[in-house]
């Protein structure tokens, strides 16, 4: 893919993510002001301290911040990397795609799907599960397949990552009677998915560390990548304001550090 074509993809993705943000805001505000929001029951173990106490609004805040993060980050990538050969950009856009999938859980309370069964709930469950699979896969591909030897297969690898995630998200069983505190449906093979995510993330970090070490590149890039992973997982699974604040801070800081060092690397190469 040429730089011009990649920039077009980035621009289209930026517009799409902004439209999704506006749609999410509009849908939530409409149903909120018409009193059509269904509030889930808090978990049994609930802290007395307000920052660690279950809060429905911390979940809503995390979903909207994820959506805003996608818009802001895609814009920064579009403006910062528009003249570089960075193949990491496309894989990072796939990671941002997983975040857009994640925002679909907003519609569980908005459409009153708590404690019900419907095709819409199934589709939302498939999308959020695809997000959990696609995020680590895309970050692994970013570290393992962004070299010059894989440059001709970048679009193919991105498409494979998306299709594999959606395939397993569709065929893994969902339990519509159990909605977790962060508004995600319960699904089968939960431990296997978590272990897969952890192992894939660890391999990604090791791969990036080795790549940076072999190319005499700053390991602050690796540190930012680690913070990005930790912040994303914290923000995704949060259901109190303590986790929301920590997750958002680590996620934003890690992203800024990773992208800054990546940009410096390509400026030095070019």
Outline of this structure?
The chain has 270 residues and is mainly α. The protein contains nine helices and two strands.
Ordered list of secondary-structure elements with their pairings:
Layout: H1 3-33, H2 56-80, H3 88-102, H4 107-110, H5 119-144, H6 154-171, E1 174-179, E2 185-187, H7 190-214, H8 220-237, H9 241-269
Biggest beta sheet summary: 2 strands, antiparallel
Shape: globular
Number of strands: 2
Strand order, largest beta sheet: 1-2
Distance between the termini: 18 Å
Mean pLDDT: 90
Estimated structural class: mainly alpha
Radius of gyration: 19 Å
Question: Portion of residues in helices?
Answer: over 70%
> DSSP strand (E) fraction?
under 5%
The helix/strand series, from N terminus to C terminus, equals HHHHHHEEHHH
Number of helices: 9
Contiguous low-pLDDT stretches (5 residues minimum) are: none
Can you put this structure into words, describing what you see?
The chain has helices spanning 3-33, 56-80, 88-102, 107-110, 119-144, 154-171, 190-214, 220-237, 241-269; strands at residues 174-179, 185-187. It has 270 residues and is mainly alpha-helical. The protein has a two-stranded antiparallel sheet. The protein is globular, with a radius of gyration of 19 Å. The two termini are 18 Å apart. The model has no long low-confidence stretch (mean pLDDT 90).
